[in-house]
Amino acid sequence: MSSPEYKSILDIHDLTLGYGDNIILNQLFLRIPEGKVSVIIGPNGSGKSTLLKALSGAISPDSGQVNLHNKNISKLSPKARARSLSLLPQVNTAPDGITVRELVERGRYAYQTWYRQWHKDDQHAVDNALQYTDLSHQAERPMQELSGGQKQRAWLALVLAQNTPLLLLDEPTTYLDIGHQIEVLNVCQNLNKHQGRTIVMVLHDLNLAARYADFMIAMKDGNIIATGTPQDVVVSSIINKLFNLPNLIISDPVSHTPLVVPQLSQAHK
Length: 269
Hints:
Blueprint: E1 8-19, E2 22-33, E3 37-41, H1 48-56, E4 63-68, E5 71-72, H2 78-84, E6 85-88, H3 100-105, H4 120-132, H5 148-161, E7 166-170, H6 178-195, E8 198-202, H7 206-212, E9 215-220, E10 223-228, H8 230-233, H9 236-243, E11 247-251, E12 258-262
Parallel strand pairs: 3-8, 3-9, 6-7, 7-8
Antiparallel strand pairs: 1-2, 1-4, 4-5, 9-10, 11-12
Helix pairs in contact: 4-5, 5-6
């Protein structure tokens, strides 16, 4: 595969990561384009979430490295990383009784020091994050009173309050119905288009991934199988290789992006 022509924000060099004899990521090389929406796809257990954590510096590789703007991410302090990128894990639990605003305010931790406590810039960042995720009118409500879609937007508001140029989102649409999935993905798309944020996220829904991604990474068994535009990656042979799924690729009549149609087995015809 030839190297794509784009400016990268993250560069992964010979990245290997495992637990004991179990290799999760196997000698990966990857460049994440700056100012784009990148989506990682692949079957369960392929290493998607582990790759996202490695990109954030939350876990250290056994060998190789991740560079953020040409700096080894493992050499950055936790606060320096938190001012450069934000990570939204797949599973999040809010403390009992915490309000939406209190949760979002935690996104400003990286900017607090002994000589700089809460500042008007912090308040401005929190208010903007609440407004952008359409939660201003819910700000004083306890998290447990929110719907699934509202809760997911609240967690997204927390990472927005960090005000980082790079957002890493691990399955931000998990457990949401289709309406709330679109709601969250539209917020992500707007952040990219109107604020220039670079977004890297893991998605399970191939058709939503193809619709929202500028760049895609296909993974299986700890390896990167393919990278490129949705038109490069969402092709029948690659989808079949990833998921052992006979399929037909057609054009989405709305977005004109690739649309995966699973083919019926003989037993269902």
